[in-house]
Amino acid sequence: MSVNLGGGLRLSNPVLTASGTFGYGIEFAPFMKLNAIGGILTKGLSLLPREGNPAPRIVETPSGMLNSIGLANVGVDAFINEKLPKLKKYKTKVIANIFGETISEYTKVARKLESEKGVHALEVNISCPNVKKGGIGFGTDPREAAKVVRAVRKVTKKHMMVKLSPNVTDIKLMAKAVERAGADSISLINTIPGMVVDVNKRRPMLAMKMGGLSGPAIKPIAVRMVYEVSKVVSVPIIGIGGIMTARDALEFIIAGASAVQVGTANFVTPDASVKVVRGIEDYLMEEKIGSIKKLTGSIID
Amino acid sequence: MKNASATILYNKPLTSGYYKLGLGWKNKGVRPGHFVMLRVSGGSDPLLRRALGVYDVLRRGQGIELIYKVVGKGTTILSNMEKGECLDVLGPLGNGFKKLKTPEKLIMVAGGVGLAPFFMLAKEHAKHGAKFLMGLRTKAEAKILGDIKATGIKVLCSTDDGTLGTRGFVTDLLKKEVKKDSIVYACGPMGMLKSVAMVAKEAGACCYVSLEGAMACGIGVCLGCAVKTYGASHKPGDTTYNMVCTDGPVFNSEDILWDELG
Ligand SMILES: Cc1cc2nc3c(=O)[nH]c(=O)nc-3n(C[C@H](O)[C@H](O)[C@H](O)COP(=O)(O)O)c2cc1C
Ligand code: FES
After folding, report:
1. Ligand 1 center–CA A215 separation, angstroms
2. Residue A274 in 3-state DSSP?
């Protein structure tokens, strides 16, 4: 079940938990063995703590949910001082999800994490508006995305995963741009913008009007994007979007992913990620497939 | 705190869309104001769990009893489940109501299913002279008060249509009952809680409210159930967000920025 994602990151199995859906990891210890999964992604970390957006921040949708949390987090320093020490006793890999509103914020966060042995890799979330560029998303412009990735590459020797936003016309261009800029692996997808209207009040349900859609509703879009990206890059791909069960995860792996992240499912079933690991193991046994690597991209198309 | 499968012991309609649900679900340390999250569908629609306040602890912690009203997809599915069926229950969650030093000063105020956290408190504090105020739509709904009345606690009702008790809002009852040294505990719709908080404040009484809010995880990780609160200094500019699921659901009403609630 082990997977080598390159750049010094080897996972005991291909199942990770997605950023923002697993807290700082330790919150799930009462419900599951953290060591049973390949690794955990932290909540997105910024240079300074962030309070996040006004409420309501979430709303349920058919087979999904919208969120506009606003990247609320304790900040990178509090993460290092208060959260990370509690993860040290676990063998599972800790991947810090980072973001910024300027390139220098990204690099400052990455630098602070560089000396932390307990952080095994970075995931760079580029689906963030660039305040210096008038709010244009880093994640929607291949040149801006490449700039962020190159800048973080210069300050980190850790494995650098780059997380793509699906909010683009051609995901392949984004993937190629971040690969060229030095990404060790590419994870996708982040949430898809959406909106729900309260018909009685004739108002948006969310205080921020729009939010990011996640959950089973987005899975086919995510699988399609993983498939497309796998045709044009050579770095490993980590599939994310609506994974509730092992079979969902297997779709991504067969379509081209080397590993997966379980997100919204953690809210529904706190040990969903462990069940995904077990289910993949069973599938490999039943199908007599020797390693997960053989399954990656094995789609007959 | 755990996530475990529970067997339905009973799922009985009470009246007007209200149901009482008994679950075989071993628990320890459940207090009034705690809640649980139920997974009503094995599939993905509805996707998220439903949060319900604990109404009672059964057989010394062998199970729990909940009260719910059918309002949407999740509760409709729940109302169709039968004795012997199983569902996942996560809990106990939240902070719960504080233990009282002066229970004789307690006035509980409930609207609709907001009575859930108060049955255990009524059992405990009926003998101390605590009071229970309930807002209902109409007389037919009064059936849900059976257990609470049986504790012997003083119960006052208001109904929207005047078919039982006083016609009007439960806050009208509170205005008459509340004193400077009262301790008000309230649970119900947001509009009601806001009015209760105002009435208590005018009277100079302390007031704790149990909030409901959209929740995804129930364990403080999604940060979806945020409510804006005053910081420690209580100065206007000093505000922060608290999570209803882990910092609450019970809050001191003075800590909440009521105008910021949806
Ligand atoms: C409540 C919530 C918070 C999230 N916060 C972050 C975040 O801080 N950083 C990030 O890169 N992605 C964040 N995401 C996106 C997820 O990591 C994931 O990409 C997305 O939810 C799709 O996967 P899923 O359908 O399995 O949830 C968040 C998602 C949700 C639902
Ligand atoms: S419901 Fe997720 S943080 Fe409260």
Report:
1. 9
2. helix
Taking Cα atoms as reference points, which of A115, A113, A181, A194 lies closest to residue A144?
A: A181
What per-residue confidence (pLDDT) applies to A207? Answer: 94
Q: Are B174 and B236 in a shared domain? A: no
- Partner-chain contact A65 B47, CB within 8 Å: yes
Identify the CATH number of the domain defined by range A3-53+70-192+214-294: 3.20.20.70
What local confidence, expressed as pLDDT, does residue B232 receive? 79
Q: State how far the Cα of A17 lies from the Cα of A263, in Å rounded to an integer.
A: 6
Would you state the structure tokens that stand for residue B257, as one six-digit string? 């920025």
Q: In this complex, which of A43, A51, A270 lies closest to B240 when CB atoms are compared?
A: A51
- Number of domains composing chain B: 3
| DSSP letters spanning B200-245 | HHHHT-EEEEE-----SSSSSSS--SEEEEE-TT--TT-EEEEETT
Work out the pLDDT band at B213, boundaries 50, 70, 90.
confident
Which is higher by pLDDT, A130 or A267?
A267
Helix (H, G, I), strand (E, B) or coil at B161: coil
Tell me the best of B225, B227, B251 to mutate to test the pocket of ligand 2, counting ligand atoms within 8 Å of each CB and taking the most: B225
What pLDDT is stored for residue B233 in this prediction?
A: 78
Q: Is the pLDDT of residue B235 over 90?
A: no
How high is the ipTM of this complex? 0.94
Q: CB–CB of A64 and B224 under 8 A?
A: no
Is B189 in the A-facing interface, judged by CB distances under 8 Å?
A: no
Of A31, A57, A67, the CB nearest to B3: A31
Q: What is the pLDDT of residue A135?
A: 60
Q: Is the CB of B245 under 6 A from ligand 2?
A: yes
Residues B106 and B88 in one domain: no
- Final residue in a domain of this structure, among B212, B230, B246: B212
Assign residue B64 the CATH number of its domain.
Answer: 2.40.30.10
Both B89 and B144 in one domain: the answer is: no
Residue type, B69: K
Q: What angle do CA A19, A21, A26 make, to 5 degrees?
A: 90
- Which neighbouring-strand residues pair with B65? B22, B56
Residues B203 and B113 in one domain: yes
Residue A19 alpha carbon to ligand 1 centre in Å: 5
Per the structure, the complete domain to which residue B248 belongs is given by 218-262
User: Is A128 a known active-site residue?
Assistant: yes
CA of A245: which chain B residue's CA is closest? B43
> Which ligand has the nearest atom to the CA of A266?
1
Contact A58 B46 (CB under 8 A): no
Question: CA B135 to CA B152: how far, in whole Å?
Answer: 18
Note the pLDDT tens digit of each residue in B159-185.
999 999 899 999 999 999 999 999 999
Question: Is B258 an interface residue toward A (CB < 8 Å)?
Answer: no
Asked whether residue B110 falls in the same domain as residue B89, the answer is no
Distance A73 CA to ligand 2 centre (A): 14
> What mean pLDDT is reported for chain A?
95
Same domain, B194 and B248: no
Which ligand 1 atom sits nearest the alpha carbon of residue A215? 25
CA of B46 vs chain A CAs: smallest distance (Å): 6
Task: Based on the fold, state whether residues B172 and B134 are members of the same structural domain.
Answer: yes
